[in-house]
Amino acid sequence: MKVFINDIEYDALPEETIIQLSDRSGIHIPRFCYHKHLSVVASCRMCLVDIEGVKNAQPACSTPVREGMKIYTSSKKTKDAQKSSMEFLLINHPLDCPICDQGGECELQDVSLQHGDDHSTYMQLKRVIVDKDVSPLVSTDMTRCIHCSRCVRFGEEISNVKELGLLDRGEDMKIDVFIENKISSELSGNMIDLCPVGALNNKPYRYKARTWDLKERPGISPHDCIGSNIFYHTYKNKILRAVPKENAYINQTWLSDRDRFGYEGIYSKDRIYNTLIREDNQLIELDKRLTVNELNKTLNKILNNDGNDNIGCMISARSTNEELFLFQKLFRGLGIKNIDHRTNEYDFSYQNNYPVMPSLGCDIKDLELFDNIVLIGVNIKSEFPILSVWLNKAVKKNTKVYSINFDSSDEDFDLHFKKIIKNDELVSIFMEQKHNLKFKENEKTIIISGPSISRLHNQSDVLSVIHKFSISVNAKMGFLTEYCNSTGAWITGNVPHRTIGGAPVKNNGLNTYEMLTKKLSSYVLFNLEPELDFHDTKLLESALEQSKFNIIFTNYVTPIIQKHADIVIPITTFAETKGSFINIEGKEQHFEHIVESSKNIFEGWDILNQILSSNNITKYNYDDIRKELISSIDGISHTELNLSSTALTKKYDSSHNLFILSRRHIYKSDSIVKRSESLQMTSQSKFNTIFISQNLHNKINDSNSLPLNNFNIKKNIKRLVVDKHLSENTIIFPSSDYDEQYFSPKSINLELK
After folding, report:
1. 203 with 332, same domain?
2. By residue range, what is the domain housing residue 153?
3. Which of 87, 611, 630, 701 stands 20 to 30 A from 552 (CA)?
4. Torsion of CA 457, 461, 466, 471, to 10 degrees
5. φ and ψ of 737, to 5 deg
6. What confidence tens digit (pLDDT) does each residue in 90-147 have?
7. What predicted TM-score, i.e. pTM, was given to this entire model?
């Protein structure tokens, strides 16, 4: 349809509003309450425009366009209406711009200069609202609030967590938390971005810099497999805050709190800045940078003494594609076959039937196109907060979401079906058709396997029966991985049975579990934290303890590294290097340096490349690495599966076995996040509770102790909670930390205080 704005003709879309048409056409209309991802309330009246034939100015955000409509955005009627609205909004707003963190980015400031008046007829005293401590992440200055309600609508419509609301009426109206609660959503930081006036601010960033002093650098989230796009703001070569970079296909305009505040961990006290070498059973810090030749001599000495088959090489799936690519190139070039990134898994018998790289099976934005989404072994809210936004959107479009999981954690979207089971039951319920999953014919269905599945001792069996079920209901099957670049780790060949591009190797090497149980002579760990990243920390420590030599490339010094490392090489974090990640859609996303690293810290890809060159294997420049990486990914169908052919190893009897689940908390999910001081102050991070099923609670009451087979580890319980929703014989522990040993589903001895 034809619409005229300021006497210029534009083509409008059906059901489009005036403000949508103007934004699309590059015509500025001031606004406060309007946001393209939120519902329209038309409360601020700042977007009033003059429409020919209409007596009063109309809100552009709520007025749909009509054929032949003539709109004027700069007429006298429009300007007078906007000045009146602006005066009203400024009645109670304090004159504290010089100290406000919103200064330089304040929509109220910008709009008042362009569309306000130079005086006010309102002469009474301004009201004052006492601020509350609502969150370690969000600070409040609610006297500045203009009641645009963006923050309220975000909780109601996007995060689906109603934490803020409008209270009272008239002059007493204010935005506040309900019943003295605190803000605890994993997406709470988005309210800071939405606030147009500085009523809600970034608490860790508060008063640290002025916005015009900051430099903006784009980056990619290193904390989950979604690959959220981020702008990092730096000052004097230090990251001070993170804000979302809009990507309509991945994170839209949102960012999880983990991605927003996780960068603080880069500046942790245990960050390593110099090479450490063991002398007299102690790690000694070198006052100079270790040369590549010295490191290369050490590697060759190990090879000569121990042989290629007696060296285990493990790398984190949080590493960049460039680091992953060069890691396997280097060690395969040296004749070493034992290469793996799957440090948090037990069962590897699935690997030959696994896709070339794990994928969601569709684009994230296309999830809302499915009629049914089945989630197995995943808590979206606490593991992939950005994905919960998309699923909430899908549910509102009548998508049915089914959840089969091991605990009773709630989601931020409505579940059509929920079943809580023990891990061994996953095999039996699908084999015996006891899952109660029934879909209508011709419905589009996707089944998504979560990170918890990879940590099961019968992963292969579970994947096999799920895949067979997906075929029987004509459903797609996808994966959500635990780390940000698990997809990249697979495609670059950091597994013992495949090289880059998924090509099979002639002779398989050892997987992680085999490397640790066979007690090899030497180990190389790259970007891994021993206490956090391994399925069994005790097993790892025993392997490192008996080995002759351990080389560890890392960001942080931890107790196990202090005790067992022979050489510790400091490497850059994601913020101090250039590189790329492949998200769970299979999209490769490149990023540059955000800040410069210390002179004694190596860029991971660079040190690996130099060692390659020193051994006369090959030498790359960065562009060559990029070209080979992209060509290896191009044309690969990452959705091809053959998991149904995986033979079941054993039929498990779930009626008597104890099921022990280690729950990894969102703010202890990786080495950087767990060192973010702000995130560790949140209520979500204080997960030191052990959850048990009702029948186990009864056993404890009977005997005052609960023997879990015959394992040696003992743990004092600070808080024991009976979860009546859990399956029988189920116990859930917090995941690893320095003071919380990682409990594997083998055997534990649990003692009560």
Report:
1. no
2. 122-267
3. 630
4. 160
5. -160, 175
6. 988 998 899 999 988 999 999 998 888 877 888 788 888 888 889 999 999 999 999 9
7. 0.91
